[in-house]
Design a protein that fits this description.
Chains A, B, C, D: Keywords: Amino-acid biosynthesis, Cytoplasm, Diaminopimelate biosynthesis, Lysine biosynthesis, NAD, NADP, Oxidoreductase. Chains A, B, C, D: Catalyzes the conversion of 4-hydroxy-tetrahydrodipicolinate (HTPA) to tetrahydrodipicolinate. Chains A, B, C, D: GO terms for molecular function: 4-hydroxy-tetrahydrodipicolinate reductase; NAD binding; NADP binding; oxidoreductase activity, acting on CH or CH2 groups, NAD or NADP as acceptor. Chains A, B, C, D: It is found in: Cytoplasm. Chains A, B, C, D: Homotetramer. Four copies of one chain form a homotetramer. Chain A is an alpha/beta fold and 265 residues long. The first copy, chain A, folds into two domains: 3-124 and 238-263, NAD(P)-binding Rossmann-like Domain (Rossmann fold); 130-234, Dihydrodipicolinate Reductase, domain 2. In chain A, 33% of the residues lie in helices and 26% in strands. Chain A has helices at 13-24, 43-46, 60-66, 79-91, 105-118, 130-142, 165-177, 241-251, and strands at residues 3-8, 28-34, 56-57, 72-75, 95-98, 121-124, 149-155, 161-162, 189-190, 198-200, 203-209, 215-223, 226-234, 256-259. Chain A has a seven-stranded parallel beta sheet, with helices on both faces. A five-stranded mixed beta sheet of chain A has the order 10-11-7-12-13, covered by helices on one side. In chain A, helix 4 (79-91) packs parallel to helix 5 and helix 6 (130-142) packs parallel to helix 7 (165-177). The relative contact order of chain A is 0.15. At the A-D interface, strand 7, strand 8, strand 9, strand 10 and strand 11 of A face strand 7, strand 8, strand 9, strand 10 and strand 11 of D. Strand 13 of chain A pairs antiparallel with strand 13 of chain B.
Chain lengths: 265, 265, 265, 265
């Protein structure tokens, strides 16, 4: 039997990919979308490449009151609406799979309690790319055995911040398992400032920015005679859809709030 | 307090590296060696680069009867002696860390029972390179999420067999978690035979042989918009010593037989 | 002063990228397009993302008769029209930059002679990706010094042929400089058929096909103690536009036919 | 007919590799060595792994006066002796292949003139690793087409200086062809200092230091939709011997001084 899905944010970058994915998967059925702008229209009238006549609602309450057989809400709209949509779904006994960010600690605790009361699952994932999450998970595991590690992240040259959020998150996860040490030779000298990269507890982070790149990261662990490298290359937003699909299936079996894909992979 | 170690096979490729490692580690103390050829001599007289006057025995029984404070036997001699040395150590209440191969299923079962009776641990590891074992472990884990995977192994051009044993072992581990599928386009054509590599349950294995290489492997998982790569590069036998060291420490805390580093990493 | 450009094939994959590029470059001016379907219309009426009111002609003769100040024809239509368009341009004293394929040896000789008579340049390039052409050029150069080489090409899993055309072309170029030898150990054995890849004069070619890949190739040369790797990663058709731009500038300075970007890089 | 070779510095790191290489090559014959310490002895008496009874001289004049059929001097001793050995060889009509560093501009000019007068060749090469020299040469060539480039060099963690000399040399060569530009987004921010690496004319250089690495460098060029990477991995001093061998053969055909392998590759 198909899993019935409502998607919030169907015109967004992630949301439009999710629409395509849900329509293409045999086991999923798209029953409605939530879009603050296009109440009463059908999906094909607002996204020309889609030919599904799925109804659009601007109000989630109305949507979930009218659509009686929804299993999962995929929430990919905007931070301002994320909490309201997620809470409303749980109150209707519908499991949320949420990519929206900006939840407070209190909101997360409340949603967890609410989901448990309803005896259903709820997954909130800041990063749906299974490959990226596995890279971080493996890096954290390897850090127990190899205290020497460099992170090299590579992105397109329009990126403003260096290092990337993923690189910083990876360094934090590694730090949980790594024996702290100052890497490199104690007397090493930078003849050109910055050559050795950024320092996080003695480990090093390097940011490459070039046209022709999208989003890439490699984590290199070294010990006598060997290196172990874990690398993720992402070239397309489609890379997030495997994770959304995985969560739609998993949320049906889980109870309470799961925060972060790494906790169910 | 130091861990007292006996090494069997001190003149071998692995054994001589282990001698160096144990002598260099502050927390380890080398108390004797087992060598079928040099009974009664001291280590410095048979390995010129070592200045330790550690006694050498050709018979393990005599050694373990005379040396009263041994904690761990590191067995790196030859398959013919491995079983006898390991069993003798357990009988003396000494934990074996074994790199020798060639144990039968019955022998493994017997050693497990014996170790449990003595209430001590015993570790037998066909591969001590922590990086290689983690690569295989991570590849197996990732295979649950990504059924599309290619293994590329690269070795020096004097290697006789292709694919490498590690590549075959990796493919087997991946198969335990991977949804079987025939990869590539159903109608793909090899215009040059062999281009698509060897086939294992629909996944592909490629063997590169070139001078200038030592022992390298990468496992590449692909899904829409992303790839995840796990890569191990080994350039020196020193890469095994991290694993031997790790096992010497771990065997003190374990009970019964552990077969394979992957089960304690 | 700007270079005045006419583009043939503005609705094609390459042509539409070329339209964007020419419109964005300060030094180029798009004066007309050739399109067999939309005679008399303007560009903005057939490509919604473009706001240029450039006239469209279905006949190149008429176009070049009316447009008096054209410097370069960028021919990216279809093989059937390529020869006619190129010849017509040269007859009008306009330099062609051609990405269309399918020219015969006789046609190439004729176009060369014609261009020389007009004292103008003409560039026909089967591959406009400067990075890919440099990879092949460098691989050919390196082959003079390193007879041991493996080619690993990686593409998306919808590709039908293996190895890729670029890999075969690279092997051919390498063969021009490489001392022929059978690589690997003389007694090496494939325990799984195909592991060692396809054989071209003793060198090896490996084809990876995975979702998440686009078009990638690495050429690895090995000799005692070292490897040299030349790698090209292409993720987008935009990669061809650097080459088209380069040719538009170069064709103004050249005389006669240049076939292949490698001869002017 | 074999090429007769004299090696200066047979006990050094490079020299001892050169001894092995010359003895192993069928077309080369080792006729004598220059060593300030072991005058009158034979090679096998000072290097135990060699069984050649080649005579050793402490004075190059005496050596070249007595040995009548020397074709090439391979000079791998120490900077203090390099100039004297090279000049003496040329004066005897013997072609020098020199890896020693520390020559002044004046000395180079004098040696060039001297070699031309004798109508023979002389090659002085600060780096004999053909792969590394080709990497630099290709990087310089590619820089004409791609102004966006990052250099990532990776070395063992006992290295004191960052970036490596090869990385600095590569950046200098790239600068000869590259259009100067400040890479990355004009408003990019380092949230961790050093993340973006060292800056050389707007291009970036990153230095990785980890145990398990030896000497590696990759040069990555990026442009819209593509990257081109040139990578050299060196794991053993044997990597220099291909270049020494190449120079021994080439110096016989050249006239005057050649400085740098890049000028004859």
């Amino acid at each position: 039997m198909a899993i019935n899905v409502v998607i919030a944010g169907p015109r967004g970058k992630m949301g439009s990919e999710a629409v395509k994915m849900v329509l293409n998967e045999e086991d999923f059925r798209l029953v409605a979308c939530i879009d603050r702008k296009n109440d009463g229209k059908t999906l094909n009238s607002i996204i020309s490449s889609v030919d599904a006549t799925v109804p659009i609602y601007d109000d989630i309450e109305t949507c979930l009151d009218q659509q009686k057989e929804v299993d999962v809400l995929v929430e990919l709209s905007v931070p301002e609406a994320g909490y309201k949509h997620t809470k409303c779904a749980i109150n209707h006994g519908i499991r949320p799979v949420v990519g929206t960010t900006g939840f407070t600690e209190n909101q997360l605790a409340e949603l967890d309690e609410l989901a448990k009361k309803q005896n259903i699952g709820c997954i909130i994932a800041p990063n749906f790319a299974i490959g990226a999450v596995l890279m971080m998970k493996f890096a954290k595991m390897a850090a127990s055995y190899f205290p020497d590690v460099d992170i090299i992240e590579k992105h397109h040259d329009n990126k403003l911040d260096a290092p990337s959020g993923t690189a910083i998150k990876t360094a934090e996860l590694i730090s949980e398992n790594r024996t702290v040490k100052q890497q490199g030779h104690p007397e090493e000298k930078e003849t050109l400032t910055g050559a050795r990269g950024a320092d996080v507890d003695g480990m090093k982070v390097h940011s490459i920015r070039l046209p022709g790149l999208v989003a890439h990261q490699e984590v290199i662990f070294g010990s006598a005679g060997q290196t172990l490298t874990i690398k993720h290359d992402s070239i397309d937003r489609a890379s997030f859809m495997d994770g959304v699909k995985f969560c739609i299936e998993r949320v049906l079996e889980s109870k309470g709030l799961t925060y972060g894909l790494e906790n169910i992979l």
